[in-house]
Amino acid sequence: MYDDAALIDRFLEMMAAERGASRNTLLAYRADLTGVAESLGGLVKADKAALGSLASLWAQLAATTVARKASALRAFFAFLEEEGLRADNPATALPRPVPRRSLPKILSIAEVDALFAVIAERTAATPPAPLDLRLSALIELLYGSGLRATELVSLPRRALAADRPFLILKGKGARERLVPISDRARAAVSAWLVHVPAESPWLFPSGKSHLSRIRLYQLVKALAAAAGIAPDRVSPHVLRHAFATHLLEGGADLRALQAMLGHADIGTTQIYTHVDSRRLVELVNSRHPLATLASTPRQRRVDGEAQAS
Fold it and tell me: What is the model's pTM?
């Protein structure tokens, strides 16, 4: 009989091979499954009563965290059932929280301008420091293209072509998408490429691999502090949120934004429609058909005579 560790390994191999699960997803699932196995004293033989007890163990966790853990367990027990390793599926006893999708943290356009002002000041030096050129390329791609942190740091050296204003990414779930690259971002990357070793397979090399996500977070937060913005308000994902929100406020189509962000479900993209009430009023006043009509009294016919209403 297989033990928990062996079956978790088999399950994760299946998730990677058949469903294209990302490394981060696999790490999260492994942590979730291993944690539950430790809490219950075993996972493979756990019954409905044992899984039902998780509701109290997870009572203090965020709904999104509970949903992720439950999702990992459902997939795991479905795998055991499909492989004939269990005759039943106890996952029906798992809690089913309804996570409330919170509004994303974003930066104002003025705050983004402040970040780029710091970068512009640094890159104006003669000659500019290579690490400042790298930071410029990183931020231009984060805010200008809405890349995820992992997608950004792992870009191949030749991901951007001089004659091609877009790149093709393979994101979550191995889904490919086309990402437009602004002229500013392409210029920033070109300036940085001069300092990338010719033998490096990565656009942002570091040691024997590429720049880590943790280091990217540190760089972004240090830039925020230099721009006078609280570092805890800024992260690579916040810049991705800012990219999406500012594009939408500028009139971008929601479906186009979904494609650029790589969202499988447009419901995920709709969270960026949280424009402020002033913006909505401006849209109605400028775009609604009534906005083009003269504000004169409407005329109506009463007993054959025209009277102002």
Answer: 0.58
